[in-house]
Design goal:
With 167 residues, this protein is α+β, with helices and mostly antiparallel strands. It folds into 2 domains: 1-30; 44-166, Protein Transport Mog1p, Chain A (3-Layer(aba) Sandwich), CATH 3.40.1000. Helices cover 20% and strands 38% of the residues. The protein is built from 2 helices and 9 strands; from the N terminus they run αβββββαββββ. It has helices spanning 2-26, 100-107, and strands at residues 44-47, 52-55, 61-62, 69-74, 85-92, 114-125, 131-140, 147-156, 159-166. Strands 3-4-5-9-8-7-6 form a 7-stranded antiparallel beta sheet, with helices on one face. Strands 1-2 form a two-stranded antiparallel sheet.
């Protein structure tokens, strides 16, 4: 009986501490967490959860999204395809971000990519000091010339955030 009371008190304390931390975090001033589809700002994408922001050239236009993609923009160059593009993907993955280039290199053949080479893959830090992984992958799509894709991967609360730039 004493164990049950002790466990109940510990659990109640944990719930109370979690509530206090959540309230304090909610009242912390910082970035406006509204997604950009509520208040669009040319050249800026703000994700609501996990919270992050990415800027890109203002003249770039939104593109259709694929699976796990939260933002996709490209330079308007209809006479010079393919256009440079930036894609931000958010997804759960249990691995370490240090393996993000290998994950991308393994995915590319599933969409018809061949001659996939990781040119570099190194740790990096974001502006806020968060750990990240930076990589460049060279590959040849099923149709078209050789491409280079630049990848910046980060992780927050078990959720991966990938920014990849390429043509």
């Amino acid at each position: 009986m004493k164990k049950l009371i002790a466990v109940s008190l510990i659990m109640a304390g944990m719930v109370l501490m979690g509530s206090v931390l959540a309230l304090a975090q909610a009242q912390t001033p910082g970035i406006d967490a509204k997604p950009t589809f509520l208040s669009p700002t040319p050249g800026l994408y703000v994700n609501g959860w996990p919270l992050f922001a990415v800027s890109y050239p203002k003249e770039w236009a939104a593109q259709p999204l694929g699976p796990n993609q939260v933002c996709r923009v490209a330079a308007p160059r209809p006479s010079l395809p393919p256009s440079p593009s930036l894609t931000i993907s958010v997804f759960f993955y249990p691995g370490e971000i240090s393996g993000s280039a290998d994950l991308l290199a393994g995915f590319l053949p599933t969409i018809g990519g061949k001659d996939v080479k990781i040119l570099y893959d190194k740790p990096a830090k974001l502006q806020d000091g968060a750990p990240a992984q930076e990589a460049e992958v060279e590959w040849v799509p099923a149709k078209g010339p050789k491409l280079n894709t630049y990848l910046l991967a980060s992780e927050k609360d078990g959720i991966w955030i990938w920014g990849h730039y390429g043509q």
